[in-house]
Specification:
Mean pLDDT: 92
Number of helices: 16
Oligomer: single chain
Low-confidence stretches: 1-6
Shape: globular
Distance between the termini: 59 Å
Helix content: 25-40%
Strand order of the largest sheet: 17-18-16-15-21-22-23
Strand content: 15-25%
Structural class: alpha+beta
Number of strands: 23
Length: about 500
């Protein structure tokens, strides 16, 4: 560390995702200075159940931070602020005194709360949640997951009622540990993550007592809700932590909102699509929380000052990149995700095959928690290449479903779609997405815009960047993919997709 100069300052971000954790350091131009990534275990106790070990995630977070500092010769004193971005909705409840989780984290993909959600729907409660939170009653969100832990883990409810148990999404969990954990750790979240719990009122930007009552969740276990970029800082890192002491933690956004922020979509009508484990398209709607009539979520895009927020419409797709992982890990059809580009390009089309990867039900715009995965259109002609191509096409067609819903809700015709996330390195997939949507797809120079958005939030809070215009100046285009299909091919392909979705819907009860 002694050779590092403190004259060069950076903004840093922890990107705690569904499959792993990344630590990234950015310079003033928004370029990546250093990055490290480690995967964590995916735990599947039963069909449809998905868990993570929160302590493993904290340990991996420490490792990636220490790896960057050690191997890139970065002095912590050079880091002017730290932002956090995270897999949203994934739910941790832990003991306030010890930091021990009361149960594994229940992941956003997990369907264990299906019966609970159905009971709420049958009781006519869905409208109450939708009006206040902009969300449907669904297994996706944190509120039912908290209730499941309180109802099914011995002693959890009594601890929560006594104020001895804390709830958090992964941002809250990491901030708590970074600021001291059991020794004075700060218990906070931001408006974007809070808006994904089914517990925050979109209009007051505070926890809603009526919704807490319906779900039976003690308010005392919930974190304080703060802006996504906070010049008052959530807290400072501790000297015994991986970054050393005194670094402001002052940016916090759920991963998809962080990507919107990193893609500088600050004007109403601007949209981005992130390709990760799932796929998430967000459309900035400005200061108005637009209620969806077409299966989208109304969500907070970001908040830059207390009591105010910018809103978005979101289309959430549960399984996209995870379907490619499934080809690799469960079927053994590929050895590496990078192979899919060449394999899919080796055939003219998918041979009439459609793959609907509804492993966790269908999210937007269908919201069918009883759907399951289906591969249709198989013939003796079908081979491995067609299945691989159908998997990539499924990513694109699910995004088309969301875009159609956004057009219907907002009346906005997108001129371009900004894209980010790991899968955007696949040129074939990006061209296919432009063909399926019929709009140009624009890939930025910095692909990891989720981490960049969190770093931007932290840098704004500390004055590293002056304002949103300074962030816009950093954004650059790597490549634009123009649609090549004619309208007939585009619409015939989409009609086939919609038929395949009907086969997957309402499969289990």
């Amino acid at each position: 560390m002694s050779n590092a100069t403190v004259s060069q300052q950076y903004a840093a971000a922890i990107d705690q995702g569904t499959t792993g954790t990344r630590f990234m350091v950015f310079d003033h131009s928004g370029q990546v200075v250093a990055a490290r990534y480690q995967e964590h275990e995916q735990i599947y106790p039963r069909p449809g159940w998905v868990e993570h070990d929160p302590l493993e995630i904290w340990e991996k977070t420490r490792h990636v931070i220490q790896g960057v500092l050690r191997e890139e010769n970065i002095d912590p004193a050079q880091i002017i602020g730290l932002g956090i971005t995270n897999q949203r909705e994934t739910t941790v409840v832990w003991d306030k005194a010890s930091g021990e989780p009361l149960h594994n984290a229940v992941v956003w993909q997990c369907t264990r709360t299906t019966e609970m959600c159905q009971r709420m729907k049958d009781a006519g409660l869905e409208n109450a949640f939708h009006i206040k939170t902009g969300l449907p009653v669904a297994t996706y969100f944190s509120g039912p997951k908290i209730r499941w832990i309180l109802d099914n883990v011995r002693g959890a409810r009594s601890k929560a009622e006594r104020g001895e148990a804390l709830f958090g999404t992964m941002d809250t969990w990491l901030i708590w540990w970074l600021t001291g954990g059991p020794d004075g750790g700060v218990h906070v979240t931001d408006v974007t993550n809070a808006s994904r719990t089914m517990l925050m009122n979109l209009h007051t930007l505070d926890w809603d007592n009526r919704l807490l009552e319906i779900l039976g969740i003690p308010r005392a276990m919930l974190p304080q809700i703060r802006p996504s970029s906070d010049s008052d800082f959530y807290g400072l890192t501790r000297s015994d932590g991986p970054l050393g002491g005194g670094i402001p933690i002052c940016g916090d956004l759920g991963d998809q909102q962080a990507a919107l922020f990193g893609q500088v979509c600050y004007e109403p009508g601007e949209a981005k699509n992130t390709y990760g484990t799932g796929c998430f398209m967000l459309l900035n709607t400005g200061s108005q929380a637009v209620s969806s009539e077409n299966g989208l979520l109304t969500t907070v895009a970001y908040g830059l000052e207390p009591g105010k927020a910018t809103y978005a419409l979101e289309g959430s797709i549960a399984i996209t990149g995870a379907a490619v992982q499934w080809l690799r890990d469960n079927l053994g059809l590929i050895e590496d995700a990078a192979e899919t580009e060449e394999i899919a390009a080796s055939v003219e089309d998918a041979g009439g095959v459609y793959f609907v990867p509804a492993f966790s039900g269908l999210f937007a715009p269908y919201w069918d928690m009883y759907a399951r995965g289906a591969i249709v259109g198989l013939t003796r002609y079908t081979d491995r290449r067609h299945l691989v191509r159908a998997t990539l096409e499924a990513i694109c067609y699910q995004s088309r479903d969301v875009l159609e819903a956004m057009r219907a809700d907002s009346g906005i015709e997108l001129e371009t779609l900004k894209v980010d996330g790991g899968a955007t390195v696949n040129d074939f997939l990006m061209q296919l997405q432009a063909d399926v949507l019929g709009v140009p797809v624009v890939r930025p120079t910095v692909n990891e815009t989720t981490a960049l958005g969190a770093a931007y939030a932290a840098g704004l809070a500390t004055g590293f960047w002056d304002d949103l215009d300074a962030l816009k100046d950093n954004w650059g285009v790597n490549r634009t993919f123009e649609p090549a299909w004619d309208e007939t091919r585009r619409e015939e392909g989409y009609e086939g997709w919609k038929k395949a979705v009907e086969r997957a819907k309402n499969w289990v009860k």
